[in-house]
Design goal:
The strands form three sheets. Strands 4-10-9-8-7-5-6 form a seven-stranded mixed sheet, with helices on both faces. The protein starts with 9 loop residues before the first helix and ends in an 11-residue tail after the last helix. The protein has about 400 residues and is of the alpha/beta class. The chain is built from 15 helices and 14 strands.
Length: about 400
Amino acid sequence: MTTDHLATNPITRRVNEFATRVHRVQERQLYLYLEPVEALRGPRVTIAGRSVLLGASYSYLGLLGHPEIEAAANAAVAQYGTGTHGVRLLAGNTDLHDRLERRIATFIGADTAVVYSSGYVANVAAITTLVGRGDVVVCDKLDHASIIDGCLLSGARLVRVPHNNIAAVDHALAEAPAGAGTLVVADAVFSMDGDVIDLPALVDVCQRRQAWLMVDESHSLGVLGSDGRGIESHFGLRGTIDIKMSSLSKSIPSVGGYIAGRAELSALLKHTSRAFVFSAALPPGSAAACLAAFDLLEREPQRVERLRQNYLSLRSGLRAGGLEVRDDPTAIVPVITGNDDAALTMARRLFDRGVFIPPIVSPAVPPHTSRLRVTVTAAHSAADVDEIIKTVIATWHEVAPVFAHTEIAR
């Protein structure tokens, strides 16, 4: 089949331009995306037969591959099979899904929870269900893409405020038309920068302005709070967030996402959110893995402390080596290169030295803010963390002078 009729269509130009960009990076052997991992063993992965230390994992508590979790998933497949009979609202619901939702609600301190097939879907589903035309939704300019997409798809008037600027949130709510529904959505921990939202100030504004508050805890569940219960625990503000969201593929090593809050919210979402009503249920093995992971998190809070010690060591070690990194209480430590080529080059040299940290470049982040997003987990030993620190520092001091004329390190 020929595509000559598409030659003058602007879509063709966009497709071809991006394909060319990818091809050029591949030609220079700097492409480190979509690497096929052949095996996982703790903080190490095998790629092309070679074991490398992973410095970009989301398995913050080191639960990926835990024997109890794998046993629970296998038992669920044996009992229920690999899938369900369809959407949960009709024939696809199991007692396992109900148990998981009750377990989530109990752990995070909510009345009920609703589980979706992914964290991305959970955000889009909740926002598009709660607000629409005539309403106002306010979000941080650095919120996750799924939040932004949910806001755009909702049809509500979207107000994007400067990062962590609570005064701007207050102003946006004050300007909302009378009678409009108002929703504020923010990440607890911002996925590209690793900093934390100012929850006390945000709660105060939302309560004064009578706005609903939704917080994405995908990178704070299992990380913030001495018990790993997230940002409310971190700030000592239990019960102040109206809608709690998280993925189930980071500290919880499975797949899916949830929305938690009051019972009335659950009833609305389960009967009207399109991603719940028209999407198949979470596979039983995945649901069982989530259940087992929450049990382990509650039983072994020392994992949270081990993670904290590791990211504190990572941050202090990188600073001692001359890198500018923030002092945030999270496992995400961005090393800003500014220039795409600097990030791509650093990532390749790190990989060649046995440390795998894929580069983050535009459009995933704004132009001139490319970076390596370094993470450690509870599964990393002190020696592993030290190896990551030394390798990143050595590589940085090699690459930085070459790109000194760019925005690197600024």
